[in-house]
Amino acid sequence: MPVHITFIDSAGTPRTVEANPGMSVMQAAKANNIPEIDADCGGVCSCASCHVYVDPAWIELFPPMSKIENALLSLLPERQANSRLSCQLKVTDEMEGLTFRTTVTIWPLVRPSRQPLSFGRTFLTN
Fold it and tell me: pTM (2 decimals)?
């Protein structure tokens, strides 16, 4: 049975979605077009573009983060104590009513979609 989770974006707009237990929070966000969850790597914990803030009242619901997740989050200047990568968080039945806050990720290796990387050179784009 789906649970309802809410994403609040950096402008303060809440969006409540249905998520099936077993899917990742990132998958639920992408399936419902939640802004500020880019998921550039597709959910393999290699980009940090699915960064969320977990409601502090619910943080203990999740298992501890892996070394890889911690390392990626350590690169984000906007990291907080309740920061997690939503690709690493599985939806469970106990999450009914859980709230996440999203943010615009400011990480040099994460870039807005469809923008070319230049590294000091000019590249042509279509």
Answer: 0.81
